[in-house]
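Subject: Sanity check before I submit

Could someone independently write out the structure tokens for this chain? I want to compare against mine line by line before I put it in a report. The sequence has 362 residues.
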Amino acid sequence: MNEKYWIAFSAIEQLDSTFVQRLYNYFGDVETAFKSNLKDLEQIEGLSVKKAENFINKRKEINPDKAEEEILKRGIKFITFDSPNYPYMLSQIHNPPMILYYKGDLLSCNLERTIAFVGSRRASFNGREGVKKVISSLANTDVCIVSGLAAGIDSISHQCAIDNNLKTIGVIASGFDYIYPKENKVLYEKIENYAGAVVTEYYPTFEPLKFRFPQRNRIVTGLSYGTVVGEAALKSGALISANLTLEQGRELMCIPGAINNSNTEGIYKLIKDGASIVTSGNDVLNALGWEIKSSLPQTCNKNISLPLPQKLIFDIIEVEPKSFDELQTLTKLETSELLTVLTIMEMDGLIEMTEGDRYKKA
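---
Independent answer below. Compare away.
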């Protein structure tokens, strides 16, 4: 088996995917490429001699059998570029990763129904709620949500996919020896255990260095038929992902937000430049030309036949969340009665508490 040579290439930290791809395309075999000498490499048109020399020197430190053993010891699965299971959409970008390491069940994800969600790490309440609204309206379908497992919009996207019975793929910017950010440890475990897969192109020992995050973004968008931008400042990683989406010839979509939020300045720039506006899952499906039927019955509308106090509260929080004091002022209910009504509504799953002790629709 030649898989160990793909792993050996990836274990050389100074190499990038384009270098390995050029060698593989030239020699037509990964083992031959890995064992090539400098004279062979000098025959490849346009290949940097310095990079070739660096590869020859660093290769001496790599034992392919040992490198493969380290992967297997950690329980990490992988797909190589020459595998029939390699994701088709990812293979079509100009610099696809030559190997994808993963934990979880990547093959359980429908790679023909992939949508990327990207956005600010410091997402606003409205930004998070917008992403939740769009993803939740795709509930119980075979759509797969792809994101970068970062804080903010990424984390919200993965969690909302899990909450709505959707598969999700998290693409990380390091090897599996690291979890970044650390607070996403539980989210990693949920995805790996039952909700999809966590994937990376990096050998397990590679750290989450700054330059690897933009590299990671090309995989997030490359795996996907389209990208939805939840929030983006004018200078942000989300805008990098948006540009990658267009370069890869994929559909770019944006969730509009408040115009006085600096995190939406990038959104409106993209919209002015031609990105589709989406406010629901149906908008996403229409933009991609997909027809998808839910595999499970839709939940009933919980706003039907509510008792008067509950209906009043529901109407008040229709537009934006309200605090207890605001609700009391608007409903004119006594403190004890309002507490009782809110408790019942929470227990019934009609409302939930959000940041700042404010109530919103569940």
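---
OP: Matches mine. For the report I'm noting this point. The chain has 17 helices and twelve strands.
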